[in-house]
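User: Look at the shape:
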Amino acid sequence: MRRYLIVLDMDLLAADEELDLEPISYLVAQQEREPCEAVVLSLASTRQARLPAAELLLGAQVGKFPVAPQPSHNLGAAAEHRLNLAVRHLKTIGCEASGLISDEEDLVKAVRSETRSRDYAAVLLVTGRQRGSWPARRLHLDPVHRLRRRLGQRLVVFPLGPGAPRPTLSS
């Protein structure tokens, strides 16, 4: 049985709709070849709740500061809800599924920590935090390039983009 790590910082169903069912289609295809186990890593970083520096600077110039997310908004509860929905959906398509929540600030550290402790056939990155800044992308210091150095072809990044080859894993 192949084990897959699915890294999420957004709802899997919403991401799947936005990505034209690519993540779920990928797992269904893998499930048809061989039973799979999916481990969902739901990211609950507080970085999502911080205001961008540009917004703070613009607010300072006009004398009105943007409003931060309400302190009552529980990022851990949102991550747990996202995790439970993803696990339920994965079980529906026939995968054995479980999950965990990471409050690690750094996406790369969160993935590395989990891949050190368990062996995965592939790591599916379904997250809005994958791009990094343009200088980081240019220098290959963004999260995708950093993870690619460690995981190689086992890293599957969604969205795949137009014309990108569909990932396959050899037996």
About this structure: The chain has seven helices and five strands. The chain has one domain: 2-48+73-157. Residues 46-51, 65-73, 160-165 have pLDDT under 50 and may be disordered.
